[in-house]
C-alpha cells in the first residue's frame, strides 16, 4: 500500500505546499525564494516539473479563499492548539573538536509553524541554524526540525528554545 500526499496549507501569516510519497517528502515550495525545493537523494537524477511552482501559488489563492469562507461560515471558531513536544540531540556521535549537527525536533504541534532560537554558552547563534518545512502527521499535527552545525569544545552548553502560539512560555532544551 502506497500513500501520496499533496498538502496546501495557509493561514493569515504562513503558507505551505508539499508533496510526499510514503511519508517521504518529494518537494516543497519555497514562497520566499519563489521556487521548488526538491528532496531527492543526491544520487538521483534531477527532475524538472515546469509549472509546478506556479500551481502551488494558485493553490495558495484557493486555500486563502476557502479559509475566508470557512471563517465566515463557522463564525470564527477558536483555533485548536496542540503544544509541541521538543527534544535536542546530535545527528551523529559527537567528538570534541569535530564538526557535527545538533537537531531540535518539535513534534505533534498545531497549528504550524514553531519558532526556534539557538544559543552556545549563552550567545545567540540562531543565524547559523536552519529550520525545515513543517511535516504533517496522520493526526493533523505537525513536526518541524531545526539544524545547527557545530564543533563542540570542552564545557560548551547549547540550547534550543521553541516558541509556539499554544505556549504561555518558551520551552528550552539543553545539550
From TrEMBL:
The keyword Transcription regulation does not apply. Residues 84-175 form the Ig-like domain. Pfam families: C1-set (PF07654), MHC_II_alpha (PF00993). It is found in: Membrane. Keywords: Adaptive immunity, Disulfide bond, Glycoprotein, Immunity, Immunoglobulin domain, Membrane, MHC II, Signal, Transmembrane, Transmembrane helix. InterPro entries: Ig-like_dom, Ig-like_dom_sf, Ig-like_fold, Ig/MHC_CS, Ig_C1-set, MHC/Immunoglobulin, MHC_I/II-like_Ag-recog, MHC_II_a/b_N. GO terms for biological process: adaptive immune response; antigen processing and presentation of peptide or polysaccharide antigen via MHC class II. One of its GO terms (cellular component) is MHC class II protein complex. It is a single-pass type I membrane protein. Belongs to the MHC class II family. This is MHC class II antigen. It comes from Clarias magur (Asian catfish). The lineage of its organism: Eukaryota, Metazoa, Chordata, Craniata, Vertebrata.
Amino acid at each position: 500500500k502506497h500513500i501520496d500526499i499533496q498538502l496546501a496549507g495557509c493561514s493569515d501569516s504562513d503558507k505551505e505546499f508539499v508533496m510526499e510519497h510514503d511519508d517521504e517528502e518529494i518537494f516543497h515550495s519555497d514562497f520566499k525564494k519563489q521556487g521548488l525545493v526538491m528532496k531527492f537523494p543526491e544520487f538521483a537524477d534531477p527532475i524538472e516539473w515546469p509549472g509546478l511552482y506556479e500551481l502551488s501559488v494558485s493553490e495558495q489563492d484557493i486555500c486563502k479563499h476557502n479559509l475566508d469562507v470557512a471563517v465566515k461560515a463557522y463564525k470564527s471558531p477558536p483555533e485548536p492548539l496542540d503544544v509541541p513536544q521538543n527534544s535536542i540531540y546530535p545527528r551523529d556521535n559527537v567528538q570534541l573538536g569535530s564538526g557535527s549537527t545538533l537537531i531540535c525536533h518539535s513534534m505533534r504541534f498545531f497549528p504550524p509553524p514553531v519558532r526556534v532560537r539557538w544559543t552556545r554558552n549563552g550567545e545567540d547563534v540562531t543565524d547559523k541554524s536552519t529550520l525545515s518545512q513543517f511535516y504533517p502527521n496522520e493526526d493533523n499535527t505537525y513536526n518541524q526540525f531545526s539544524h545547527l552545525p557545530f564543533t563542540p569544545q570542552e564545557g560548551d552548553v547549547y540550547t534550543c528554545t521553541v516558541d509556539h502560539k499554544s505556549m504561555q512560555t518558551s520551552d528550552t532544551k539543553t545539550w
